[in-house]
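lol ok so funny story. i was supposed to be doing the assay writeup but got distracted and ended up predicting the structure for this chain instead. priorities right. anyway since i did it might as well share w the group, maybe its usefull for someone
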Amino acid sequence: MAVRGVDMFTWFYDTGIYIYALSLLFFISDCIRRNRSAKRTGTGLLAVVGILQAGALFIRAFEESSLPIFTPFDFLLLLAFSLIVASLIINLLQRAEFAVLLLSIIGFSILVLNRLRFSPGNNSLKHWETVHGLLVMHITLANLSFVVFTIAAVFSVMYLFLHRKLKGKKWTDTVRRLPSLEMLDKYAYSLALIGTPLLTVSFILATLSVISEGRLNLLLDLKVLATFMGLAFYYFYLFKKRSHQHTGALMAKWILIGYVFIIFIFVLNTWSDFHRWNGE
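and the output, tada:
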């Protein structure tokens, strides 16, 4: 029965990857040359991918008898699924084709790399039983903040691209299909305004779980310090944005610097003693 469950999970996951790749082809085709039919087809296929990944998550939840978030594989699976949902929502906005394409490339890459690098199981956080509820909320909020910051980074990249094109007076079809600099800046700022509190609360919950377990030495863990530094970058961005002291281009670069820290924080799981996601 367990083998059949694994086989079904693999079918849902792998089929989703194949259809995701096909969806990307249609989105790329639409972005290269405006094609509403290709956009509709890509959107439909992306919705199918979302259903398949939701099925994969359901199977993992059934196998674990809880929300599957405690392993790097499950964390990335949930992250990719959230990006798919976000892409479908953003697709409803005007001039959002390139944002959807970039998010789809990121989501697709996460699913493929997750398949190649990690595997389900090996829940290394079972020993944190006394603070299980805090950890569930901590990891869930961290995942959501990762999604929000990813979208903010995409809009920031689009801002810098458009800013460079307009500065060079290169009015191409791609430029015409992008939102205005003002809208891209507004989107990135609004998302940072959402993601920063999410990560802050997640960080506080992690700190409380460490204190509750009496593992105060973990407060000096490299992952904890890196998370604090990443938050500092985003709070600096929000402060400077409110004070109107810097240009939009510089603020977009600050968002990207903060996002690099977010990625760095996840990579640190391999060496960190806080989560022990290296399977030891």
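The CA atoms of residues 80 and 106 lie 8 Å apart. The longest helix spans residues 132-167.
back to the writeup now i swear
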